Each structure stands twice: as C-alpha cells, then as structure tokens.
Amino acid sequence: MERMLGSMDGLNDKFREECGLFGVASSRQDAPELTFFGLHALQHRGQESAGIVVGNGQELEGKKGMGLVTQVFDRKDLDEMDGKLGIGHVRYSTTGASLEVNAQPLLIRSLSGSMALAHNGNLTNSQELRQELENAGSIFHSTLDTEILAHLLARPGFESFEQTLCHSLLQLQGAYALVILRGDTVYGARDPQGFRPLILGKIDGDYLLASESCAFHTIGGRVIREIEPGEIVKLKPRKIESIRFSEPGPQKFCVFEYIYFARPDSSFSLDNVHRIRQKMGRQLADEYNPEGDIVIPVPDSGNSAAQGYARARNLPFELALIKNKYVGRSFIMPRQDMRETQVKLKLSPIRELIEGKRVILIDDSLVRGTTSRYIVKMVRDAGAREVHLGISSPPVSFSCYYGLDTTRRKELIAAQKNTAEIGEHVGVDSLGYLSLEGLQKMFGENMGYCDACFSGNYPLAGEEGNEKRGGNN
Fold first, then answer.
1. Residues designated as active site
2. 19-251: which CATH architecture?
3. How many other C-beta atoms lie within 10 A of the C-beta of residue 427?
4. For 161-193, what is each residue's pLDDT tens digit?
5. Whole-number mean pLDDT of the chain?
C-alpha cells in the first residue's frame, strides 16, 4: 500500500525526507558509537526506523527497529556491539509500508558470507528487476529496493565481489546512494546521475560516509569530498580505494536538498545550505514584494529564506511562530476534524508581534496546502491585518520518481490550481512563488540539478505521465 504524503497527517504538507546513510571504517573499536551519533545528526532525514550493523572483518551483528535513533538504541546496545566497521540508516518510507521488516540496513547471510546494505533513493525499474529475480527463484521478505540489490549481489559468476557489485549497479535505473558492509570493507556508491547525496569524510585518519556533512561535524570529523556519480569507494581502516563502475551522466542532484531536506549547517558542492536558502529568499523578494510590516518564517525550514527575504526588503524579521519541538513529526491526530488542533499543538503565534500588522509569511514549499491554510488562519486569529505568503521555491506540479515521498500528481495542489486559486484556498491576501527561472539562477545556467517536480523535465527517459514507480528507501 502506498504511503501518501499527508494522507492522514495535516502537519506534513511537505515532501518527506528521504533516508539518511552513515558508514565508517575505523582503526578503533568505536564504529557503534560513531554510527549512532552520525545517525542522530541525520535524524531529520527519516524518523520511522533506524538501524546499525557493525563488524570486525568477519561476522556482522546489528540491531534495527521502529522509531527515532534514541528510541531504538540505548547505551547497553552500543556497549554490546563490537566492531571497527559500521553502517547505519534512518528511514522514511517513500512508497512501502512502515513496517519493521522494511527497516535497514538489511543483514544478509549466504554461502558467500555475510553482508549488510542500506539505500537511499528509488529504483525506477524495481518492478522489472523483482519480477526477473522471482522468476529465477528468488524469494523476497520485504518491499525494499535494497533487497533487489541484495539478490543481485548474491548471484554467482564473477571472480570478485567488486566485479559483482559493478555489474549489479549497472542493472539499476533511477536514484540511489548506497552503503554496504562486507568482510573488512565498507563500500559506498552513487548512481551515475548523482540524484541522492553521499559524502566522504575523515576522522583521525579513518574514513567516513554520510548523506550530509552535518554528520561529520557532530563526531568531530571533516569533509573530504562528495562521492562522484558512478563511483564506488572501498573503505578500510585508514585506507581508501575508488572504483568507477559507470561514466557519470549529466549530474541531476535533487534540488530539494537545498530547498528543504538538508540541515542548514550541511554543505554540498555548490555552497552551504543556509546560505543558498538565504539567496532563494533574496531572489523571492525581487519577484514578490507585497506591502508588509513584518516578515515571519514558517519554522523551521522557512527560517533561512525568510532572513534573506527580510534583509532584501529591509523589513523586520521576527520569529513570531514558536515551534513546539516535543510534538514529533510523526504525531498524528485520530480524526480529520482535529487537524487544526494538531497545528496549534505544533505552532504557537506571538500575538504581541502580529496584532495589527501586515504579515508576510515565508515558507520553503507548498505541496498540498492543508497546513498552510491552518497556519494562515492562526496568524489571522492572532490579529494580523493582512497575511501574504511567499514560497521560496516554484510550484510543485509534478510527481517525483527518484526518492522523495511524493503524492500522485492529482494530489499536488499546483497541478490542479493556479496561483490565485491556491492563494484563495489557503486564505491569504496574496501568494507568490519563486519562479523556476529564479531558482535556476541560484545554480547557474548549467544547473546540474533535478528540478522535475517543478518543471516536469525528467532526467531519465520514460517517467513522463507515469504514476509512482519503483520501490522505496
């Protein structure tokens, strides 16, 4: 059964985070702790399940479960794990069921030895690959794309695991970043288009992998570089080797990493995420400038863009919507008519800053409009004279097939209504989006980024007009 964005939860009027990956090849017995803290830094990328697998060069052991990293693991768990090598995963399911069987990493034991795999992305040819493998006798225990790769890697016929891995990756289509633990090696790999992020880091001479650089900062590591599209890296304690399994295609890094998914303190090849979001806010100010007295971000993802917008307009910036951080992202009210109560539990306005003002709200994206409508009503109830809404990204009009939790296109409000109609739906005096041209201006003419959810220009052939295909993270 597909997990649809916001189908039950009125607070999640966003694309969901994809998944978070971490890997380490340490010269000390500290892989469990490093992986735990690395995953904790990546918690924003998935809150449904968490898992860690560690090894000492031969046997692998691990634990995974439903919930946040700190809910799945305690001090006793880490003390009982023993290993220099480790990989970890935090997950939000993009299309598969939210079940423990789908938690990662997958730990596979076969005649060729033990192996653990974790994946971030979506394979657009997963249905065809699964059917082919089942016809050949494979039995699947989950709905994960990751298990498809596990079956491919278990096939005999190659002299080395590296040859098997290269051959298997060439059969995959779509978006994937991978970490694999096998024997005395941690492998990392990235698809030829580089849709999903994977970064190489270092700590005390040992090598690390993570979806975002913020994971390295947390444990005292540093960034070396991004794994290149079409590249495999082999990590051992204090050793690294690079293998090219494919020539890189035209790079199509997911632009939503900069808009929403990544933590503001993370950086990718272009720049720091916070600074890019500020630039988006400044560009929005050039394109959308209603009369206003105060700029208020929709926390937390709208904060950086709102700062840039307010500075460009020379308007006061106020954190006038206070977020209750103790109401988790997965908090769900039991009835449809209680969604407004849910928003009030999550956000609280400061009336003294809002009353009598012409308010310009800034948010990073608007997908369904449900939450925006409740927030606008909340601001009006706090005494706002006018409410204007600026979105620091273009209208989300097309489905994503590369690892985001997207709704079917018919549930994307911008696919059904024009800007004026959306503004009326959410109850604002005016609504303005950052234009696609304005977004592309952030990255230069040769963008090197995937903006298909805005433009409908899919980087891989055969996606136009399809509904959601592929498996899940």
1. 19
2. 4-Layer Sandwich (3.60)
3. 18
4. 999 999 999 999 999 999 999 999 999 999 999
5. 88
